[in-house]
Amino acid sequence: MISSIKATVPTATINGSDSIFRKRLLSPTQRSLFLPPLQVDSSSKSEFSLSRPLHISNVSCFEPVRVQKSLIKCKAYEAEQSQPIEREEAKSAAAQKVKIGIYFATWWALNVVFNIYNKKVLNAYPYPWLTSTLSLACGSLMMLISWATRIAEPPNTDLEFWKTLFPVAVAHTIGHVAATVSMSKVAVSFTHIIKSGEPAFSVLVSRFLLGETFPLPVYMSLVPIIGGCALAAVTELNFNMIGFMGAMISNLAFVFRNIFSKKGMKGKSVSGMNYYACLSILSLLILTPFAIAVEGPQLWAAGYKTAMSQNGPQFIWWVAAQSIFYHLYNQVSYMSLDEISPLTFSIGNTMKRISVIVSSIIIFHTPVQPINALGAAIAILGTFLYSQAKQ
């Protein structure tokens, strides 16, 4: 039951002789903040006497208007009502898995294509320093055009960014050139078998130079890595010391690249595609003078004539393809790293090695002994176990 109480309010008397208050009352421009605007009818004449006191019977109408706020109602729903939300989350997770799968497939495919064309170029044109320079130059040019045409958003960098990037670029340049030198001397499969031993270098450098300790399973995973690489190297039919040392130097350089990258790029907003683009540009500036000093334009010109006479115009396509695909596969790998965890990335990198080794053996008809294949399998298995134990 709702009851109302009407309060009796004493009447207020306005003295008609008070001219000041009367002037304020009668002024049409002065309105109270609490009163709604009054509609004044100019046609009607209202007369009242000021000789008598004015009486206001009730002031309840002068109370400020209270706006009733709408209430937010909270209701409890049954468990079945949450099914649409769960479906949306499931769809989002499935879409993310598909996206990562596409990244991985693209990454592996581009890497396989790069290694094939890179080996074709090095067989016809054995100048790894120039080949490495061209791959960095092509990627840098592609990104500069993308930034100029606004296909990709240019990175926001400063002098401090380039200072922290410099040691990363030095290590990246050494690793890239060393790997290219290795592939110019030995089979692609052998280079990647040796490069699968990179985790062993990472642990040893972190332990003895940085003082970082690891759990026992991490150290145990190095046994199959080192043993498998050694077995593959000993049984390699086309073993070459320069090719072997190039792959080893590449492993060591990329370990330092990762260490410098983790230390120097903390808190930086540039990542993924643009980060690798900046790395390529700086590496190109570092590598170019060394490539000219080591090989030189005269050797390049003589080698070009020989390659064109033996292979024809398709040699130009090989050079262009290896340069373009080198940048693309590295770019996709950095984009993948933005989307996935380091553990997933390590597993993907391991699977990439397998795809490159198998495809290069098939395409180039590389002779492989069973004991050599066993060593490669053991090394790759150790890399997978390392990625699991590290996390």
TrEMBL record:
InterPro entries in the record, alphabetically? EmrE-like, Sugar_P_trans_dom, Tpt_PEP_transl, TPT_transporter
Where in the cell?
Plastid, Chloroplast membrane
What range(s) does the Sugar phosphate transporter domain occupy?
A: 99-387
- Chief subcellular location equals plastid
Amino-acid biosynthesis: is it a keyword of this entry?
no
Which residue spans traverse the membrane? 100-117, 129-148, 216-235, 241-260, 272-294, 314-330
**Keyword rRNA-binding tagged:** no
Show the SUPFAM superfamilies listed in the entry.
Multidrug resistance efflux transporter EmrE
Q: How does it sit in the membrane?
A: Multi-pass membrane protein
A Gene Ontology cellular-component term = chloroplast membrane
Cite the entry's keywords alphabetically.
Chloroplast, Membrane, Plastid, Transit peptide, Transmembrane, Transmembrane helix, Transport
One Gene Ontology MF term = organophosphate ester transmembrane transporter activity
**PANTHER family linked to this entry:** SOLUTE CARRIER FAMILY 35
Record's protein name: Sugar phosphate transporter domain-containing protein
